[in-house]
Amino acid sequence: MVTTPRVNWVLFVLYSLVAISMTVAALVSPAFRAQAPAPLRDVILPAPKPVILNVLYSTEKDAWLAEVVAAFEASQVLVDGHPVQVEMEKMGSREMVLAVLDGTNRPDIISPASMLQIAILQDQSTAAFGAPLVNMADEELCPSVVTTPLVLVAWEERAQALWGNHPGEDFWRDFQTALVDPAGWSAFGHPEWGYVKFGHTDPLRSNSGFMTILLMTYDFHDRTSGLSAADITADPEYQSWFLDFERSISQFEYSTGPLMEKMIAYGPSTYDIAAVYEATAIEQAENATGRYGDLRIYYPPVTVWSDHPFCILNADWVTPEKNQAARLFLDYLQSPEVQQLALLRYGFRPTDPAIPLDQPGSPFNVYAPNGLQRDLSGLPSLQPTSGDVLNILLEFWSRNVAR
Amino acid sequence: MKRISIPLFSIVMILFLLLAACAPIAGMFNTVTISIVYGSEKRAWLEPLVDQYNAGRYQTEDGAVIRVEITPMGSIESVDAILEGRIQPTVWSPASSVYIPVANMKWRQAHGSELVTGTPNDLVLSPVVIAMWESMARALGWPERAIGWADIAALATSEDGWAAYGYPEWGTFKFGHTHPGFSNSGIVSVIAETYAGAGKLRDLTLSDLENPDTQAFVEAVESGIIHYGSSTGFFAERMFERGPSYLSAAVLYENLVVEQESRRLAGESQQLPVVAIYPVEGTFWSNHPYVILNAPWVTEEQRSAAQDFENFLLDRPQQLKALEYGFRPADPSIDLTAPLDAQHGVDPGQPQTILEIPSAEVIAGIENLWEQVKKPVDLVVLIDASGSMQGDKIAAARSSLLQFVDLLSDRDRLQVILFNSELVTLTELSSLGEKRQDIRTRISGIIEGGNTRLYDAVDYAYAELERNADPDHIRAIVVLSDGDDTESDLTLDTLLGRIDIASLEGGSSVKLFTIAFGEDAARDVLVQLAEATGGQQYDSTMENILKVYREIATFF
Question: Cα–Cα distance between A366 and A281 in angstroms, integer?
């Protein structure tokens, strides 16, 4: 007679409990969830909390980033099985640095228009908190993703009257003379155009305005590097030249995108010439034609680059998950397809050297007749300036020009 | 321990579940209302969009349904109403940004903060233009010759008027802009005149305003004004209804010219063609900023609802609609195409230049300058003091008249006549500055009794103005009446005949403003009288009589 072995109830319950807990644990874990079949995932299991990545970025990247972020989220990247959700907030470049410094904003990634702002954030956060929030030397955590130089964009007819095909050697000095002349456009044979109207953004809020006054200041001192505090604070000739220049400007827009949009929306009656990024000019070139005519793009004799750093913050709110998500996002931004998109659709210069500016559909070919140049290697660029001197220039502007 | 009955427990649970399920639905019955006070010239575009938006039942992030209510109001008038606390809108959308610094300056004095913060977005654009009948513009050399504020000044001050240009049959040059204390186009007109007078295009200073030459120039241009008015849209209507004999030219917005030309081309207006002149010295933009007010009465919920409506207005379909109404869309990706073309009297390649917006202090200085040099009014006020006015009515008439007198300037000349069975002159036509206190005392003493000699009273006022008024002043009669004529010697037809003859002078003739006070007023008669002169009839009650007087005051 075969006897059924006696079940050890205590062991049975114990094993069962362990098995059930393991199953539940496996089911609840995001890693398992990601692989589970869709109906099971959505019906039985709770959705894993997304890793939220807060990105503070400058306005002129708005259109490109909107497209890129949608594609990034749709690509379903995961951090430990958690999807990544990118929360974007746009702001003027300097404004965002101030917002981070005073704690009103706590982003995981900050992307002003230029490393100039990162230099200031690095110096000032070290002074304020004892450790830098960003490290501009770290190419992995703080890479430049796309670049674009500062240009002067003008309505074709007016540019011809002022500069012809090539502005003279003394670009900024001649320009200043035209701006402050009470005769305005009469001096160029066009009294009906009124006074000469130039626009750059508010340097206290926006990077392109900051770059413009920096270029003007370097140009006055006939240098491309090593600007000192005394050049700004102890040179009355410079001060009067610079302040006359700035006082000829009626209003300072808060950001570059809106300045360019305003130039196109209102036309030559309101802005004859504006200092904006090359990419911003490209973005609006077609709109201009439909509103008031063609634009002409000029490169000042010394260039200054907007290099669009994307820096992951070294702050306690950037958790390891967020840090990992941020790195994935930076990788994505530097991938060939995203870089290609930045060039073809938005006129940025990719940092990936494998992507040529000269290719079918490239705006550098389309707008070459408007003065766009692919190769700027012949033009000297401004060398990095110390964060302290940059601040002195801003303070000087703030005290004497800001309204 | 007592056991809880299972049915009771189930019912409680079911109720809980139902409540939980209701919570999100309840959100749908929540409504957040935002009120918008806006410059009337964008009414044609905005009104249908508000209906469309309300019908769409758009929601805030918290699920409350957004409801938008709009009220048209002169751009400067609305600032004053906000500052005085008479209105508390969520959003203020004046015709332009020009007055924002002044609004901020005044608000800061009372509240220590800014009423408008940040940079508001523009909804639509339209340049300030001088709208002129095409034949008259051509007589000035348009379109080959560029015309400016200086030409307007020369015409306004010329003794010969249009005769100097070979058209004596057009009479004097009749010019109009709105009241700078109420409307954006009014204040920008006076700013532009001041620039032209100072011979500048930018950097206008307070010392420029003290220059006698500048003052004389502004006074000269203002002398050509037929009357002022509260809103630009209303001014345009008046010009396009009454034609060239009423107004030769008026300061309007480009979109109003397009609107009129579209109507004319569609056969809805029989008027002559009108064109937009872009002043050669420069002009201003009407940019219709959308300002969510930084005021204590605006809640966070309203702020986010107002934001949602703003996004709706800036979306491409709504921006394309703006083009149809003759605006230049704020969205730069929309091309400037028809109806922004020569066929509709405008040139999208213009303006060539703008004038710099002066500082808040200088704008306030220009407002004062205008008060000193504006065209004065010679005004006869007729007050019905018949027996039917007894009680609260006569009291309301007295107090509102007192406030109306306060709105007139010292250089204005005023005569007040009471009519019942008799005509009693309270004060003869003379400068208000000399008699302000005296006249206040007399108005406070008005009592009622007797019949209504309306026609005789109007006829007498006309005769008084013919005898005593200065033809270089605005001339007007304001009549307040609560009943039909019961005792006049004159008939209505005779009176109308007399008014018709006087009105042959066109825009610069005597204007009659009639107020039908209460339900028993002879409204039809008052409408006929006012319309015959180019004036205006108002229905009034004791509650809104002050508002009516304020409205009439904008004409002077």
Answer: 13
